[in-house]
From TrEMBL:
Belongs to the TrpC family. NCBIfam families: PRK00278.2-4. It comes from the Bacteria. The gene is trpC. It is an enzyme of class 4 (lyase). Residues 4-254 form the Indole-3-glycerol phosphate synthase domain. Pfam families: IGPS. InterPro entries: Aldolase_TIM (IPR013785), Indole-3-glycerol_P_synth (IPR045186), Indole-3-glycerol_P_synth_dom (IPR013798), RibuloseP-bd_barrel (IPR011060). It comes from Flavobacterium limi. It catalyses: 1-(2-carboxyphenylamino)-1-deoxy-D-ribulose 5-phosphate + H(+) = (1S,2R)-1-C-(indol-3-yl)glycerol 3-phosphate + CO2 + H2O. This is Indole-3-glycerol phosphate synthase.
Length: 259
């Protein structure tokens, strides 16, 4: 069993537990539930940099990346740097995140927020909306075509955008549907954690132009982005590269200036 399989088994258990504690009716009373969301896809289309910066404390492959910042410091730094949007990891067990991180981020900035999570249930999409997210991530590797359709349409009905993450041709082919806004190619193989920009390059021509193309993971230099832009990528998700520094916001500022 690989790490992704383990995460999904744990996630399904976690969702069952949460549903038994916090009813949907409670999520729907959140102050953010009726709030107009901000479109990341539109911001990426209009942006020169396309940076989606990530708040990420640790990962299964790297263990602790950085625990020294508060969420507010990181996200404010990213907003000041000119990031198009911010990805907030909310998985606790493997990434050290929480829904509180999302809530604190929403209270601190006014740019699109992605709930970065292993979504397996509509309940998690309601949580995302209730905690101030503007968009959600769906991972093709762990969902069937029918699940992607159901979850993405559910998100759209709540006014949330959908970023679908794929890793290969097969995942891409099963996933393309009108209820997605952005298609992200993960340059990290979630089963082996090996990273290569070739994944993004190989799949670029297969992604229809109706969707904003996003390249995720393993992007650590301005050169990498310049290499990917001719392939039609408008968004670039960067996490560890900023988080592993002493000042994530400053690192993002310098990176975007170089772009």
């Amino acid at each position: 069993m690989n790490i992704l399989d383990k995460i999904i088994i744990d996630k399904k258990r976690e969702v069952i537990l949460k549903k038994s504690i916090i009813p949907v009716s409670q999520l729907e009373t959140s102050v953010f539930f009726g709030k107009q969301t901000i479109s990341l896809s539109q911001k990426l289309r209009e942006s020169n940099s396309g940076i989606i910066a990530e708040h990420k404390r640790r990962s299964p492959s790297k263990s602790i990346i950085n625990n020294n910042f508060t969420v507010e410091e990181v996200v404010k730094g990213y907003e000041d740097a000119g990031a198009c949007g911010i990805s907030v990891l909310t998985d606790g067990k493997y990434f050290g995140g929480s829904l509180d991180d999302l809530l604190l981020a929403r209270a601190s900035v006014n740019i699109p927020l992605l709930r970065k999570e292993f979504i397996v249930d509509e309940y998690q999409i309601l949580e995302a909306k209730a905690h101030g997210a503007d968009l959600i991530l769906l991972i093709a590797a762990v969902l069937t075509r029918e699940e992607i359709k159901t979850l993405s349409e559910f998100a759209k009905n709540l006014g949330l955008e959908v970023l679908l993450e794929v890793h290969n041709q097969e995942e891409l082919e099963k996933s393309i549907m009108p209820s997605l806004d952005m298609i992200g190619v993960n340059n990290r193989n979630l089963k082996t954690f090996e990273v290569s920009l070739d994944f993004s390059k190989e799949l670029a021509s297969q992604i229809p132009n109706d969707f904003v193309k996003v390249s995720e993971s393993g992007i650590s230099s301005v050169e990498a982005i310049q290499e990917l832009k001719p392939y039609g990528y408008k968004g670039f998700l960067i996490g560890e590269n900023f988080m592993k520094t002493d000042n994530a916001g400053q690192a993002a500022t310098e990176f975007i200036k170089q772009l």
